[in-house]
Amino acid sequence: MPPQKEVSIAQTFPDIEIIVGTYEEYLLGYQIVEEEVKDENKLLLKQTFADKSHAGAIKCISVQGPWVASGGSDDRIFVYDMRQRKLSQVLLSHSGTINALSFAPDMSHLLSGSSDGQLKATRVGSWAVAGDWKKAHAGSPITHISCHPSSKLCLSLGGDRILNTWNLVKGRVVYRTNLKSKTTLGAAPDCLSWSTDGEHFTLTGLQVLEIWDIKTANVARRAKTPSRPICVAWLGETECLSGLENGSIAWVSLADHKEAEPKILPAHAARVKAVACLNDTLVSVSSAGEIKVWRCELEKRELTFIASTSIGCRPTSLGLVDLSLIEGGAARPKQSPAVPVATSRPSEVEPELQIDAPKGFVTIEFDDDAKPPATTPKKAAKKSQKAAKKQKKAEMDFDENSSDGESDPITDSESDDENDSHPAPTPKKVTKKSGKQNEDSNAESSDETEATVPKPKARKEKAEQNSDSDSDSAPKRKRKQPASHTPVQRKVKKQTR
After folding, report:
1. Which end of the chain has fewer beta carbons closer than 10 Å to its terminal beta carbon, N or C?
2. What is the pTM of this model?
Protein backbone atom coordinates (compact mmCIF):
# COMPACT_ATOMS: atom_id res chain seq x y z
CA MET A 1 0.00 0.00 0.00
CA PRO A 2 2.64 2.67 0.83
CA PRO A 3 4.28 2.38 -2.62
CA GLN A 4 0.85 2.80 -4.28
CA LYS A 5 0.22 5.95 -2.25
CA GLU A 6 3.47 7.50 -3.41
CA VAL A 7 2.72 6.62 -7.01
CA SER A 8 -0.77 8.11 -6.87
CA ILE A 9 0.62 11.37 -5.48
CA ALA A 10 3.35 11.53 -8.09
CA GLN A 11 0.87 10.98 -10.91
CA THR A 12 -1.70 13.46 -9.62
CA PHE A 13 0.45 16.32 -8.39
CA PRO A 14 3.84 17.65 -9.43
CA ASP A 15 6.72 17.05 -7.11
CA ILE A 16 7.19 20.64 -5.93
CA GLU A 17 8.59 22.49 -2.95
CA ILE A 18 7.03 25.77 -1.87
CA ILE A 19 9.48 28.53 -0.86
CA VAL A 20 8.10 31.45 1.15
CA GLY A 21 9.86 34.64 2.21
CA THR A 22 8.66 36.50 5.31
CA TYR A 23 8.95 39.82 7.09
CA GLU A 24 10.42 37.95 10.07
CA GLU A 25 13.60 37.21 8.02
CA TYR A 26 12.70 33.52 7.60
CA LEU A 27 12.92 31.63 4.34
CA LEU A 28 10.62 28.61 4.63
CA GLY A 29 10.07 25.51 2.51
CA TYR A 30 7.05 23.15 2.36
CA GLN A 31 6.22 19.97 0.47
CA ILE A 32 2.99 18.04 -0.14
CA VAL A 33 2.89 14.71 1.68
CA GLU A 34 0.23 12.10 2.24
CA GLU A 35 -0.50 10.99 5.80
CA GLU A 36 -3.08 8.81 7.44
CA VAL A 37 -5.29 10.81 9.79
CA LYS A 38 -8.11 8.96 11.59
CA ASP A 39 -8.07 6.07 9.14
CA GLU A 40 -8.19 8.48 6.22
CA ASN A 41 -5.43 9.46 3.79
CA LYS A 42 -5.02 13.21 3.56
CA LEU A 43 -2.66 15.50 1.74
CA LEU A 44 -0.78 17.83 4.08
CA LEU A 45 1.89 20.46 3.81
CA LYS A 46 5.01 19.68 5.87
CA GLN A 47 7.86 22.06 6.52
CA THR A 48 11.09 20.84 4.90
CA PHE A 49 13.26 23.93 4.85
CA ALA A 50 13.90 26.87 7.15
CA ASP A 51 16.64 29.47 7.12
CA LYS A 52 17.23 32.81 8.83
CA SER A 53 20.34 34.18 7.16
CA HIS A 54 18.91 37.60 6.36
CA ALA A 55 19.26 40.43 8.85
CA GLY A 56 16.12 42.14 7.57
CA ALA A 57 12.78 41.44 5.95
CA ILE A 58 12.86 39.33 2.78
CA LYS A 59 11.46 41.42 -0.05
CA CYS A 60 11.60 39.13 -3.09
CA ILE A 61 12.30 35.57 -4.25
CA SER A 62 13.28 34.07 -7.59
CA VAL A 63 13.39 30.35 -8.39
CA GLN A 64 14.83 28.68 -11.48
CA GLY A 65 15.89 25.06 -11.69
CA PRO A 66 17.80 24.12 -8.52
CA TRP A 67 18.57 27.75 -7.64
CA VAL A 68 16.63 29.83 -5.11
CA ALA A 69 17.58 33.49 -4.63
CA SER A 70 16.21 35.77 -1.91
CA GLY A 71 16.77 39.50 -1.52
CA GLY A 72 16.07 41.55 1.57
CA SER A 73 16.22 44.91 3.25
CA ASP A 74 19.73 44.09 4.50
CA ASP A 75 21.05 44.87 0.96
CA ARG A 76 22.12 41.24 0.46
CA ILE A 77 21.16 38.43 -1.89
CA PHE A 78 21.35 34.82 -0.68
CA VAL A 79 21.53 32.04 -3.26
CA TYR A 80 20.64 28.46 -2.28
CA ASP A 81 21.41 25.25 -4.13
CA MET A 82 18.47 22.90 -3.58
CA ARG A 83 20.45 19.93 -4.89
CA GLN A 84 22.53 20.08 -1.71
CA ARG A 85 19.96 22.04 0.25
CA LYS A 86 22.38 24.60 1.58
CA LEU A 87 23.47 28.20 1.12
CA SER A 88 25.66 28.51 -1.96
CA GLN A 89 26.52 32.21 -2.30
CA VAL A 90 26.01 35.64 -0.72
CA LEU A 91 25.97 38.62 -3.10
CA LEU A 92 26.93 42.02 -1.68
CA SER A 93 26.98 44.08 -4.88
CA HIS A 94 24.04 46.35 -3.95
CA SER A 95 23.93 49.21 -1.47
CA GLY A 96 20.16 49.36 -1.05
CA THR A 97 17.14 47.18 -0.35
CA ILE A 98 16.74 44.40 -2.92
CA ASN A 99 13.29 44.97 -4.43
CA ALA A 100 13.34 42.63 -7.45
CA LEU A 101 15.05 39.39 -8.51
CA SER A 102 14.69 37.38 -11.72
CA PHE A 103 16.65 34.38 -12.97
CA ALA A 104 17.08 34.06 -16.71
CA PRO A 105 15.18 30.95 -17.87
CA ASP A 106 18.42 29.49 -19.29
CA MET A 107 19.98 29.93 -15.81
CA SER A 108 22.84 32.00 -17.23
CA HIS A 109 22.31 35.18 -15.17
CA LEU A 110 20.52 36.53 -12.13
CA LEU A 111 19.03 40.01 -12.59
CA SER A 112 18.62 42.15 -9.50
CA GLY A 113 17.31 45.64 -8.81
CA SER A 114 17.43 47.67 -5.62
CA SER A 115 16.35 50.92 -4.07
CA ASP A 116 19.74 52.49 -4.91
CA GLY A 117 18.64 52.54 -8.57
CA GLN A 118 21.14 49.93 -9.77
CA LEU A 119 20.34 47.06 -12.08
CA LYS A 120 22.88 44.25 -12.05
CA ALA A 121 23.32 41.02 -14.00
CA THR A 122 25.25 38.36 -12.06
CA ARG A 123 26.62 35.32 -13.83
CA VAL A 124 25.29 32.08 -12.36
CA GLY A 125 28.01 29.71 -11.18
CA SER A 126 30.93 32.13 -10.86
CA TRP A 127 28.62 34.74 -9.31
CA ALA A 128 30.60 37.58 -10.87
CA VAL A 129 28.86 40.78 -11.93
CA ALA A 130 28.56 40.66 -15.72
CA GLY A 131 26.50 43.85 -16.15
CA ASP A 132 26.07 46.92 -13.98
CA TRP A 133 23.70 49.79 -14.79
CA LYS A 134 23.98 52.29 -11.95
CA LYS A 135 21.22 54.61 -13.21
CA ALA A 136 18.87 52.25 -14.97
CA HIS A 137 15.89 54.47 -14.13
CA ALA A 138 17.61 57.83 -13.73
CA GLY A 139 18.57 56.99 -10.16
CA SER A 140 15.03 56.06 -9.08
CA PRO A 141 14.50 52.81 -7.14
CA ILE A 142 13.87 49.71 -9.23
CA THR A 143 10.64 48.03 -8.16
CA HIS A 144 10.09 45.17 -10.64
CA ILE A 145 12.14 42.97 -12.98
CA SER A 146 10.84 40.23 -15.28
CA CYS A 147 12.99 38.22 -17.68
CA HIS A 148 11.65 37.05 -21.03
CA PRO A 149 11.40 33.26 -21.56
CA SER A 150 14.02 33.54 -24.33
CA SER A 151 16.54 35.04 -21.86
CA LYS A 152 17.33 37.74 -24.42
CA LEU A 153 14.94 40.44 -23.24
CA CYS A 154 14.06 41.90 -19.88
CA LEU A 155 11.53 44.38 -18.51
CA SER A 156 12.22 46.69 -15.60
CA LEU A 157 9.94 49.12 -13.81
CA GLY A 158 11.13 51.89 -11.53
CA GLY A 159 9.96 54.70 -9.32
CA ASP A 160 10.10 57.08 -12.30
CA ARG A 161 7.12 55.17 -13.80
CA ILE A 162 9.14 54.32 -16.90
CA LEU A 163 8.97 50.80 -18.34
CA ASN A 164 12.36 49.86 -19.83
CA THR A 165 12.84 47.06 -22.34
CA TRP A 166 16.39 45.72 -22.18
CA ASN A 167 18.35 43.83 -24.79
CA LEU A 168 20.37 41.45 -22.63
CA VAL A 169 22.58 40.44 -25.55
CA LYS A 170 23.82 43.99 -26.07
CA GLY A 171 23.24 45.10 -22.50
CA ARG A 172 21.32 48.30 -23.19
CA VAL A 173 17.81 49.75 -23.24
CA VAL A 174 16.08 49.37 -26.60
CA TYR A 175 12.70 50.86 -25.73
CA ARG A 176 11.20 53.10 -23.04
CA THR A 177 7.50 53.38 -22.24
CA ASN A 178 6.26 56.33 -20.21
CA LEU A 179 3.48 55.10 -17.91
CA LYS A 180 2.74 58.53 -16.43
CA SER A 181 0.14 59.12 -19.06
CA LYS A 182 -1.60 55.83 -18.26
CA THR A 183 -4.12 57.09 -15.74
CA THR A 184 -5.71 53.67 -15.35
CA LEU A 185 -2.55 52.31 -13.72
CA GLY A 186 -2.36 55.07 -11.12
CA ALA A 187 0.81 56.40 -9.51
CA ALA A 188 2.37 53.00 -8.75
CA PRO A 189 2.12 50.39 -11.53
CA ASP A 190 2.59 46.87 -10.20
CA CYS A 191 2.65 43.14 -11.06
CA LEU A 192 5.09 43.04 -13.98
CA SER A 193 5.06 39.49 -15.32
CA TRP A 194 5.66 37.66 -18.66
CA SER A 195 3.39 34.98 -20.09
CA THR A 196 4.85 31.50 -20.60
CA ASP A 197 5.28 32.02 -24.36
CA GLY A 198 6.70 35.55 -23.99
CA GLU A 199 4.05 37.19 -26.20
CA HIS A 200 2.32 39.15 -23.43
CA PHE A 201 3.08 40.77 -20.09
CA THR A 202 0.90 42.22 -17.33
CA LEU A 203 0.66 45.52 -15.50
CA THR A 204 -1.80 46.34 -12.73
CA GLY A 205 -3.25 49.51 -11.29
CA LEU A 206 -5.67 50.46 -8.54
CA GLN A 207 -8.55 48.20 -9.63
CA VAL A 208 -7.51 47.05 -13.06
CA LEU A 209 -5.31 44.43 -14.68
CA GLU A 210 -3.90 45.05 -18.16
CA ILE A 211 -2.33 42.50 -20.50
CA TRP A 212 0.01 44.07 -23.07
CA ASP A 213 0.89 42.60 -26.44
CA ILE A 214 4.61 42.77 -27.15
CA LYS A 215 4.11 42.93 -30.93
CA THR A 216 1.79 45.92 -30.96
CA ALA A 217 3.02 47.48 -27.68
CA ASN A 218 -0.63 48.09 -26.79
CA VAL A 219 -3.13 46.73 -24.28
CA ALA A 220 -4.67 43.49 -25.56
CA ARG A 221 -6.87 42.82 -22.50
CA ARG A 222 -8.11 45.06 -19.72
CA ALA A 223 -10.01 43.57 -16.77
CA LYS A 224 -11.56 45.57 -13.97
CA THR A 225 -11.37 43.89 -10.57
CA PRO A 226 -13.52 44.42 -7.46
CA SER A 227 -10.39 45.03 -5.41
CA ARG A 228 -6.80 45.99 -5.99
CA PRO A 229 -4.63 43.29 -7.66
CA ILE A 230 -1.62 42.44 -5.46
CA CYS A 231 0.10 39.62 -7.38
CA VAL A 232 -0.07 37.86 -10.74
CA ALA A 233 0.84 34.38 -12.03
CA TRP A 234 0.49 32.91 -15.52
CA LEU A 235 -1.11 29.50 -15.79
CA GLY A 236 -0.35 29.18 -19.51
CA GLU A 237 -0.07 31.25 -22.65
CA THR A 238 -3.52 32.81 -22.34
CA GLU A 239 -4.68 32.22 -18.76
CA CYS A 240 -3.71 34.62 -15.99
CA LEU A 241 -4.52 34.47 -12.25
CA SER A 242 -4.34 37.50 -9.95
CA GLY A 243 -4.59 37.63 -6.15
CA LEU A 244 -6.76 40.48 -4.87
CA GLU A 245 -6.68 42.57 -1.74
CA ASN A 246 -10.05 41.22 -0.59
CA GLY A 247 -8.71 37.62 -0.49
CA SER A 248 -10.18 36.46 -3.79
CA ILE A 249 -8.45 35.28 -6.98
CA ALA A 250 -9.38 36.80 -10.36
CA TRP A 251 -9.18 34.52 -13.41
CA VAL A 252 -8.43 36.55 -16.55
CA SER A 253 -8.28 34.97 -20.03
CA LEU A 254 -7.11 36.39 -23.35
CA ALA A 255 -9.81 34.34 -25.05
CA ASP A 256 -12.46 36.69 -23.65
CA HIS A 257 -13.45 40.09 -24.92
CA LYS A 258 -11.02 42.92 -24.31
CA GLU A 259 -13.21 44.58 -21.66
CA ALA A 260 -14.86 41.43 -20.26
CA GLU A 261 -15.02 41.01 -16.50
CA PRO A 262 -12.79 38.35 -14.93
CA LYS A 263 -14.08 35.37 -13.00
CA ILE A 264 -13.72 35.90 -9.24
CA LEU A 265 -12.93 32.83 -7.12
CA PRO A 266 -12.95 32.84 -3.29
CA ALA A 267 -9.63 31.78 -1.80
CA HIS A 268 -8.60 33.40 1.52
CA ALA A 269 -10.15 35.43 4.29
CA ALA A 270 -7.29 37.94 4.18
CA ARG A 271 -5.41 39.68 1.39
CA VAL A 272 -3.65 37.40 -1.09
CA LYS A 273 -0.02 38.35 -0.75
CA ALA A 274 1.58 36.12 -3.42
CA VAL A 275 0.68 33.43 -5.97
CA ALA A 276 2.75 31.02 -8.07
CA CYS A 277 1.88 28.46 -10.75
CA LEU A 278 3.62 25.31 -11.97
CA ASN A 279 1.94 23.24 -14.66
CA ASP A 280 -1.69 22.96 -13.47
CA THR A 281 -0.96 23.62 -9.78
CA LEU A 282 -1.55 27.00 -8.10
CA VAL A 283 -0.13 27.99 -4.71
CA SER A 284 -1.40 31.08 -2.90
CA VAL A 285 -0.47 32.61 0.44
CA SER A 286 -2.41 35.24 2.38
CA SER A 287 -1.09 38.09 4.51
CA ALA A 288 -2.26 36.12 7.57
CA GLY A 289 0.31 33.38 6.79
CA GLU A 290 -2.05 30.77 5.30
CA ILE A 291 -0.72 28.69 2.38
CA LYS A 292 -3.16 26.88 0.09
CA VAL A 293 -2.49 24.52 -2.81
CA TRP A 294 -5.03 24.33 -5.64
CA ARG A 295 -5.57 22.25 -8.74
CA CYS A 296 -6.55 24.35 -11.73
CA GLU A 297 -9.21 23.14 -14.15
CA LEU A 298 -8.74 25.09 -17.36
CA GLU A 299 -11.97 24.12 -19.04
CA LYS A 300 -14.20 25.08 -16.12
CA ARG A 301 -11.91 27.85 -14.86
CA GLU A 302 -12.20 26.54 -11.36
CA LEU A 303 -9.82 25.85 -8.46
CA THR A 304 -9.92 22.58 -6.50
CA PHE A 305 -8.52 22.73 -2.98
CA ILE A 306 -5.72 20.24 -2.19
CA ALA A 307 -3.94 21.16 1.06
CA SER A 308 -3.21 24.08 3.36
CA THR A 309 -1.13 25.09 6.36
CA SER A 310 -0.27 28.14 8.45
CA ILE A 311 3.34 29.33 8.57
CA GLY A 312 2.91 31.60 11.60
CA CYS A 313 4.70 34.51 9.86
CA ARG A 314 3.79 37.37 7.56
CA PRO A 315 4.72 36.35 4.00
CA THR A 316 6.20 38.69 1.41
CA SER A 317 6.99 36.51 -1.62
CA LEU A 318 6.53 33.03 -3.02
CA GLY A 319 8.35 30.63 -5.35
CA LEU A 320 8.05 27.00 -6.51
CA VAL A 321 10.87 24.51 -6.99
CA ASP A 322 10.24 21.69 -9.47
CA LEU A 323 11.93 18.78 -7.69
CA SER A 324 11.40 16.47 -10.67
CA LEU A 325 14.09 18.44 -12.54
CA ILE A 326 16.63 18.00 -9.73
CA GLU A 327 18.69 14.84 -9.79
CA GLY A 328 19.38 12.98 -6.57
CA GLY A 329 17.21 12.22 -3.58
CA ALA A 330 18.84 14.79 -1.33
CA ALA A 331 16.36 17.40 -2.55
CA ARG A 332 13.35 15.54 -1.15
CA PRO A 333 13.53 15.15 2.63
CA LYS A 334 9.82 14.53 3.09
CA GLN A 335 8.18 14.46 6.53
CA SER A 336 11.39 15.75 8.12
CA PRO A 337 11.21 19.45 9.04
CA ALA A 338 14.37 21.26 8.13
CA VAL A 339 16.24 23.34 10.63
CA PRO A 340 17.85 26.73 9.91
CA VAL A 341 21.22 26.70 8.20
CA ALA A 342 23.59 25.38 10.85
CA THR A 343 26.00 27.84 12.39
CA SER A 344 29.35 26.97 13.94
CA ARG A 345 29.04 24.90 17.08
CA PRO A 346 31.08 25.74 20.18
CA SER A 347 33.33 22.72 19.61
CA GLU A 348 34.20 24.08 16.19
CA VAL A 349 34.82 27.60 17.39
CA GLU A 350 37.12 26.86 20.30
CA PRO A 351 40.09 25.57 18.24
CA GLU A 352 39.99 28.72 16.13
CA LEU A 353 40.38 30.90 19.20
CA GLN A 354 43.75 29.27 19.94
CA ILE A 355 45.33 30.58 16.77
CA ASP A 356 46.59 33.70 18.55
CA ALA A 357 48.61 31.68 21.11
CA PRO A 358 51.92 31.43 19.12
CA LYS A 359 52.23 35.23 18.93
CA GLY A 360 54.25 35.24 22.18
CA PHE A 361 57.06 33.24 20.57
CA VAL A 362 57.47 35.86 17.88
CA THR A 363 58.21 38.60 20.37
CA ILE A 364 60.77 36.44 22.18
CA GLU A 365 62.68 35.62 19.02
CA PHE A 366 63.15 39.28 18.11
CA ASP A 367 64.26 40.41 21.58
CA ASP A 368 67.86 41.64 21.89
CA ASP A 369 70.21 39.51 24.00
CA ALA A 370 71.17 42.58 26.01
CA LYS A 371 67.60 43.14 27.09
CA PRO A 372 66.12 41.46 30.16
CA PRO A 373 64.65 38.01 29.50
CA ALA A 374 61.03 37.80 28.48
CA THR A 375 60.13 36.29 31.85
CA THR A 376 61.38 39.42 33.72
CA PRO A 377 58.92 42.28 33.74
CA LYS A 378 60.12 45.55 32.27
CA LYS A 379 59.28 47.51 35.39
CA ALA A 380 61.34 45.18 37.59
CA ALA A 381 64.33 45.50 35.24
CA LYS A 382 64.13 49.30 35.33
CA LYS A 383 63.91 49.31 39.11
CA SER A 384 67.04 47.14 39.41
CA GLN A 385 68.96 49.46 37.07
CA LYS A 386 67.90 52.52 39.06
CA ALA A 387 68.92 50.83 42.33
CA ALA A 388 72.39 50.06 40.92
CA LYS A 389 72.83 53.67 39.81
CA LYS A 390 71.79 54.97 43.22
CA GLN A 391 74.25 52.65 45.00
CA LYS A 392 77.11 53.74 42.73
CA LYS A 393 76.25 57.39 43.24
CA ALA A 394 76.13 56.86 47.00
CA GLU A 395 79.66 55.44 46.96
CA MET A 396 80.93 58.41 44.99
CA ASP A 397 79.23 60.87 47.31
CA PHE A 398 80.69 59.12 50.35
CA ASP A 399 84.26 59.44 49.01
CA GLU A 400 83.75 63.03 47.95
CA ASN A 401 82.41 63.99 51.36
CA SER A 402 85.41 62.41 53.08
CA SER A 403 87.93 64.51 51.04
CA ASP A 404 88.79 68.20 51.57
CA GLY A 405 89.69 69.04 48.01
CA GLU A 406 90.29 67.78 44.54
CA SER A 407 92.07 64.49 43.96
CA ASP A 408 95.83 64.34 43.43
CA PRO A 409 97.91 61.75 41.66
CA ILE A 410 97.93 58.29 43.23
CA THR A 411 100.30 57.85 46.27
CA ASP A 412 100.41 55.67 49.36
CA SER A 413 102.29 58.12 51.58
CA GLU A 414 100.75 60.00 54.44
CA SER A 415 102.31 63.21 55.78
CA ASP A 416 103.22 63.33 59.51
CA ASP A 417 104.78 66.77 59.39
CA GLU A 418 102.86 69.62 60.85
CA ASN A 419 105.00 72.32 59.26
CA ASP A 420 103.08 74.06 56.49
CA SER A 421 105.74 76.62 55.58
CA HIS A 422 107.56 74.54 53.01
CA PRO A 423 106.17 74.19 49.51
CA ALA A 424 104.62 70.81 48.62
CA PRO A 425 107.02 68.58 46.73
CA THR A 426 106.02 66.64 43.67
CA PRO A 427 104.41 63.32 44.74
CA LYS A 428 106.20 60.09 43.94
CA LYS A 429 104.80 56.74 43.03
CA VAL A 430 104.90 54.10 45.72
CA THR A 431 106.49 50.70 45.22
CA LYS A 432 106.58 47.67 47.45
CA LYS A 433 110.21 48.16 48.51
CA SER A 434 110.30 51.91 49.16
CA GLY A 435 106.82 52.55 50.30
CA LYS A 436 107.79 53.49 53.88
CA GLN A 437 110.79 55.69 52.87
CA ASN A 438 108.70 57.77 50.53
CA GLU A 439 106.17 58.15 53.27
CA ASP A 440 108.76 59.58 55.73
CA SER A 441 110.38 61.89 53.16
CA ASN A 442 107.21 63.41 51.92
CA ALA A 443 105.65 63.83 55.33
CA GLU A 444 107.78 66.88 56.35
CA SER A 445 106.65 69.50 53.84
CA SER A 446 103.75 68.20 51.77
CA ASP A 447 100.12 68.71 51.84
CA GLU A 448 100.00 65.35 50.17
CA THR A 449 97.09 63.00 49.58
CA GLU A 450 96.88 59.43 50.49
CA ALA A 451 95.67 56.72 48.12
CA THR A 452 92.54 54.87 48.96
CA VAL A 453 91.09 51.71 47.59
CA PRO A 454 87.36 51.22 47.14
CA LYS A 455 85.33 52.28 50.14
CA PRO A 456 85.01 48.98 52.04
CA LYS A 457 88.83 48.71 52.54
CA ALA A 458 89.97 52.36 52.69
CA ARG A 459 89.48 53.05 56.41
CA LYS A 460 90.86 49.69 57.50
CA GLU A 461 94.19 50.20 55.68
CA LYS A 462 94.52 53.76 57.02
CA ALA A 463 94.09 52.51 60.59
CA GLU A 464 96.75 49.87 60.09
CA GLN A 465 99.21 52.49 58.69
CA ASN A 466 98.74 54.83 61.70
CA SER A 467 99.08 52.10 64.33
CA ASP A 468 101.87 50.09 62.82
CA SER A 469 104.46 51.53 60.43
CA ASP A 470 106.14 48.23 59.86
CA SER A 471 107.14 47.57 56.25
CA ASP A 472 105.35 44.22 56.25
CA SER A 473 102.12 45.98 55.32
CA ALA A 474 103.57 47.28 52.09
CA PRO A 475 103.54 43.99 50.19
CA LYS A 476 99.83 43.60 50.96
CA ARG A 477 98.97 46.55 48.80
CA LYS A 478 97.80 45.67 45.31
CA ARG A 479 100.14 46.17 42.45
CA LYS A 480 99.09 48.59 39.77
CA GLN A 481 97.62 46.73 36.83
CA PRO A 482 98.98 47.16 33.32
CA ALA A 483 97.03 49.16 30.78
CA SER A 484 95.70 45.99 29.20
CA HIS A 485 93.92 45.01 32.41
CA THR A 486 90.98 46.73 33.96
CA PRO A 487 92.41 49.49 36.21
CA VAL A 488 91.65 49.45 39.90
CA GLN A 489 89.37 52.25 40.83
CA ARG A 490 91.08 54.50 43.37
CA LYS A 491 90.23 57.84 44.77
CA VAL A 492 92.62 60.36 46.43
CA LYS A 493 91.85 62.35 49.50
CA LYS A 494 93.75 65.53 50.19
CA GLN A 495 94.90 66.31 53.72
CA THR A 496 96.18 69.61 55.05
CA ARG A 497 98.06 70.11 58.20
Report:
1. N
2. 0.65
